[in-house]
Amino acid sequence: MGGISPAKPASSCSECFAWGVLPGYCCRACYTFRNLHPSGRCAACRRTVPIKEGYCRLCRLQALTDAKAAGKTAVSEPFLRGVRCQQLFFARMHRDHYRIPGRARLGKSGTRGRRPALMGADLRDPIRAGVQLQLPLDIRRDYNRFDRRRDADLANPTLIRGRRIAEDVGEARGWSHALIAGVDQALVVVLSGHTGDEKIRYSELISAVRHRGRVADILEELGLLDDDRVLAFDTWLERKLDGITSGIRRDVEDWIRTLHDGGPRTRPRDPNTVWGYLNRIRPILLGWSHHYDHLREVTRNDILAIANALQGNKRRHTLSVLRSLFGYCRKNGVIFRDPTKRIRVGPNNYRAILPLDDNEIAEATGAAITPATRLAVALAAIHAARSKDVGQLLLDDVDLGDRRLTIAGRSRPLDDLTYRALTDWLSYRRTHWPNTANPHLLVNRVTAVRTCPVGRVWITRAFWGLTATLDRLHVDRQLEESLTHGPDPLHLAAVFGFSPGTAIRYAAAARHLLESPAEHHDLHS
Q1: Both 318 and 366 in a single domain?
Q2: pLDDT tens digits, residue range 12-58?
Q3: Domain total for the chain?
Q4: How many other CB atoms are there within 10 angstroms of residue 429's CB atom?
Q5: Residue 113 and residue 387: Cα distance in Å, rounded?
Q6: Percentage of the chain lying above the pLDDT 70 cut
Q7: 24 lies in which domain range?
Q8: At what angle are helices 212-222 and 157-173 packed, to 10 degrees?
Q9: Is 484 exposed, middle or buried (0-12, 13-18, 19+ CB in 10 A)?
Q10: Distance in angstroms (rounded) separating the CA atoms of residues 186 and 487
Q11: Based on the domain organization, do 218 and 244 belong to the same domain?
Q12: Which of 68, 102, 136 is the last residue of a domain?
């Protein structure tokens, strides 16, 4: 290459895309690189250009930039494999800034001394010191283009650690051979080109990786997971608060999040309680948003107008929720006065507890066609177990030798019907999931490879639409105990672990049934 004409315009190098006044179709560095190395396909950018050890000059410069940012002085294979983008530069830029320390400069500049540093320049400042900055690009990985024969790097240290952790987790959780093989293949796709401590987003696994939930667990163990999933609670809260004025919305959102997550002196509430609270008062908040900008503008008359328009348990529940909201705001100094103070809520009006008839119980037993549902019916109808308690039962709670069963912390004797239902279910569980490590008594296809309990929907789905649901069977068993042994609250509290109020309520319901002439005739006929 000869000299460059002063009138020649600037252009871009055809190989490294460097911008500047070039002597030809490429810069001087790429011209020298082309004369020293043959053409081929770059392993990083997939271009057909001159390559050295499988990588083009542009990708090697980017790898050198990453290596220097990590405190290294030379390019290594992990940095070359980790090239995902290229930082563009001006021609002849790397000749000065990326010279290896201790090596003499090439050409005429080798006889020249270093230029004196600028007065007052801080070399730690990247801009003033002349260090090339990386563009803040958000480049997402696309695992759909992964070719195992071409891109798999089984010698990657991160992949080796991930596969070892996957084997340990699979053995501890009782994964099948097919599941272990599927997770291993997914880890090869995800971690073959991984370098350093870069995080992997969960959203990048959704489109191309099978068993992404298990792969995410392995990445979490490695400390490489960036869980960018939006919580279902946040999505629900955003939808429910839509339409509420900003001043009211801010205080309501703080209150709901404190109920859901807990606070310095507040324990987290059950999610169903949180959902019920906001659903109850959302129409009221929307109405206030048309007239008020903040909760401090709500008066006692507004609360009384709402209370007078409601009756029964709906009135009591609404006032209780409003008390919780304004009490939270008063405690945190958001409002000056609580408008719900000294407004009588009233007692809770419980519905009458009536026993189930034989046809309704027969429908429930007929719907239990699997070993799991038959066991659930036995636990609810005989031992008065709630559906939540059925799902939380552990294998350690069952003692077949002594014929004892522990439900919600209370040990009970095993009757013959429940004993047969238990042995049938354990045989079914042993046949379908012999290697599962889940400690819970009931498992299904999803929880057999985990350690969490089954969901309430899975337990109760077979009884949807029936009068005798699992919860009704649980209530009927408690009422039957009151009718058989007499309406004694102390006896009910000792048998089922009732609170005093609940025991009195069931005793009063049984006493009412026993004193009713029609019911008395039916019970003794």
Answers
A1: no
A2: 888 888 888 888 888 888 888 888 888 888 888 888 899 988 899 88
A3: 4
A4: 20
A5: 83
A6: 87
A7: 11-102
A8: 120
A9: exposed
A10: 61
A11: no
A12: 102
